[in-house]
Known about the structure:
By secondary structure, the protein is α/β, with parallel strands linked by helices.
Amino acid sequence: MVDVRSGRTGGPAPESANVTSLRQRNRALVLTHVLQSGRTSRGDLARECGLSLASATNIVGDLVAEGLVHETGSIASRGGRPITVVEPRPEGAYLIGADVGERGVAVELFDLKMTRVDREFRGGRDDETPETIAHDLDDALEALRERNPAAWPALAGVGLGLPGVVETAADGSQTLYAQSLGWPPVAVGDLIHFDGPVSAENGAKTQAMAELWFGAARGVEHALVALLGRGVGLGIIADGRLQHGSMSTAAEWGHTKIERYGQVCRCGNRGCVEAYVGADAILNAWRATGASFEGSGWGALGSLLDAVDKGDPAATGVLDDVIHSLGVALGSLVNLTNPQRVVIGGWVGVRLMEQHAARIADATKANALTRAGEQLEFVASTFGGDTVAVGAAIMPLETLVRDARPRPGDVPKSA
Length: 415
Ligand SMILES: [Zn+2]
């Protein structure tokens, strides 16, 4: 079951409120299923959501009236009667997801089928600050608005995947704590100026949301979704829900320790996972062997892996160390959480999984209890290195799933 965050109940409610909340819950179930499957039927919806065919039909009718789903034809059934196909209506709503990294922002516009309609990248500096990020976000949004005037009135909101811990206060305001980047706490409201709903989440957690909704963790009750990039992050899915802890710093795996008195980490501490398997750590270790290469990103990591392929002993030693460290770090997580599935993503993770997935899985199992190691499968992320923006766009999607919205021309329904 996905986390549709369908409201909190506090004590007994009057019957009419119960009826309303039940209706909302069923609407959320059906809409989630249509969005996730991309193509379904009323019969499938009834079966998958545990509803009667009449209820599923009613809810689909409501969603058609809201403009969020539509009928796209029919297929023959075994009984001979045609089955009507139900799909998300692409132009029914638009969503923006932004991947805010430490080297720039990628702002992406999606339609309701989660097809990427447009994309704008800004930045590329080595010394991004909250101010340059805010400027780039506003600039990128404006460029998207100018190019997509028809989408703007149907925009459900903006989701931001941010490089740090994101806390939400009781009044709904959010604050970013990006300790590793040396930034002071930043109010999310200062990062973006958008006249509509904005929500933010840690980038690794948005990646986990993307995998949970549409990717390698869909339908999995217990999963770990690791993000390996310049930073190292994690989403823990337990009982089908992304875990946040008391104030949302849960799963800050990149800053758990794998060595006492170890390498200095960007967070200021020593021996953190990120100080061994983050992109900078990997490339610094290779540079320390006397290797010379260009850049500090995708291309540089590719050069390292190419050198390994050619049998270069220094590069091989660096990769062996990285895989060993990753195995130690993941093995502890496996013992702690007993996942069914471990998903590896992020641009570093994707590159490593392309060529060395079996070794990473073996190293993890070697560092976990035998029984826990036998109970999991290891997969690469569905969305490659470009997941954070997709996951960020799921935040406005969740709002759409949770709250029925009136459409222009709607006649209010009587209960
Ligand atoms: Zn650290």
